[in-house]
Amino acid sequence: MEYLQRIEEHSAETGWVAPLTQEDKDYFVHLRSVCKRYNINLSKATRLEYDFLIRVAESEFYLQ
């Protein structure tokens, strides 16, 4: 437990990113479903495809 506390203190000092929230995780699940729907691999997408996927995923996710 002490080890974890030291890691937390170090991360607070160095500016590490906070853990994902449940909403973040749900968004990534939704984004993956949008990628599958349009058959686009996000890691290989062009800038136009990437922008399209993000725009569609955000608009659908935040309307729910």
Q: State the helical fraction.
A: over 70%
Range of strand content: under 5%
Low-confidence stretches: none
Quick one: biggest sheet? none
Number of helices: 3
The whole-angstrom Rg is 17 Å
Class of secondary structure makeup = mainly alpha
Report how far the terminal alpha carbons are from each other: 39 Å
Count of DSSP E strands?
0
Overall mean pLDDT score? Answer: 89
The coarse overall form would be: elongated
Order of H and E elements = HHH
Q: How are the SSEs ordered, and which strands pair?
A:
Blueprint lengths: L1 H13 L7 H16 L9 H17 L1
Helix pairs in contact: 2-3
Give descriptors for this structure.
64 residues, mainly alpha
Task: Quickly describe the structure.
This protein is an all-alpha fold and 64 residues long. It has helices at 2-14, 22-37, 47-63.
Please tell me about this protein's structure.
With 64 residues, this protein is mainly α. The chain is 72% helix and 0% strand. The chain contains three helices and no strands. Helix 2 (22-37) crosses helix 3 (47-63). It is elongated. The model has no long low-confidence stretch (mean pLDDT 89).
